[in-house]
Amino acid sequence: MSVSVFIQTLNEEKNLPRCLASLSWSDDIVVLDSYSSDRTLEIARTASARIYQRDYDGRANNQNWAVANIEFKYPWVWYVDADEVTTSQLAKEIMDVSSRKEAPEVVYYVRRRNMFMGRWLRYGGCYSTWIPRLWKPDHIRWERDANPVAIIDGPRGYLTNDFVHYPFSKGMSDWFERHNKYSTYEAQAFIKEVRRKLEFRQILSRDPTVRRKFLKQLAYRLPCRPFLVFCYMYFVQLGFLDGMAGLTYCRLRAIYEYMIDLKVKALRRRDKGLSM
To answer: How many domains does the chain have?
Structure first.
């Protein structure tokens, strides 16, 4: 059985060729573009991709629109971002599991290898995070604009091979620009989620998505959160073993968390009718 591929793009002419080169095993590549102004669409057409366009209003909204409106050629869809590479070992595993007709799984989770300063961030780069990337469109939806949470209807499985992510492929300025937007989404989610009651039993869930959601809600309530995030990534997750790349990345993540906190304060002052 073959597998469809889904990619979201916005001005990805630098990343897309490498991404597409790793997807030659699929004959149904679907690109959802948010009106790129560079050569993204031209590059996508050279790979015979089917192209849809939609204004970007959050990752979850884009993904939900895709599963509701795009008719994928095959029952299984492999979702990959333009700055990611699907290894040959992972591609083989994807084809293998999607061909199991009697298997109950409707979604498969995968781990991501973040690359920075020429090396894989094995420890402090959130490698332990499992992400739903191979799915049947009728069984998945997403919530939250930043770092969407998957709502899955059915059993899930886990792939043994990883995909490779190049989050700094367009430079440090692009990383800050993207995370400035992400921090706005996270601050808005922060305001909503701190109002919810913590369900401590979720920490014992077998679902890594549920556990991760609980830990995020717990972290929102902690003082000195950016510093604690740095300590957790650098010391608990052993980010110091990633060398200078690990130290730099953990500091960048702390800066990102501080951006979120500043925007939360601004939103709260705005709600009270106060200026920043």
So the answer is: 2
CA distance 131 to 155: 15
| Mean pLDDT for the stretch of residues 69-97 | 98
Q: Are residues 156 and 206 in the same domain?
A: no
118-132, 147-161, 164-178, 190-204: the lowest-pLDDT one: 190-204
Question: 139 and 199 in one domain?
Answer: no
Tell me which of 135, 165, 195 is where a domain ends: 165
Dihedral angle sign, alpha carbons of residues 15, 21, 24, 25: negative
Q: Say how far apart CA 43 and CA 122 lie, in whole Å.
A: 32
Work out the average pLDDT over 30-45.
98
Strands 4-9 and 77-79: parallel
pLDDT at 268 (0 to 100): 86
Task: For residues 120 and 154, give the distance between their C-alpha atoms in angstroms, rounded to a whole number.
Answer: 33
DSSP 128-185: T-EEEEEE-GGGEEEE-SSSPEEEE-S-EEE-SS-EEE-TTTT-HHHHHHHHHHHHHH
More confident residue, 55 or 268: 55
Residue 199 pLDDT more than 80? Answer: no
Residue 264 contacts residue 190 (beta carbons within 8 Å): yes
Q: What CATH number does the domain containing 78 carry?
A: 3.90.550.10
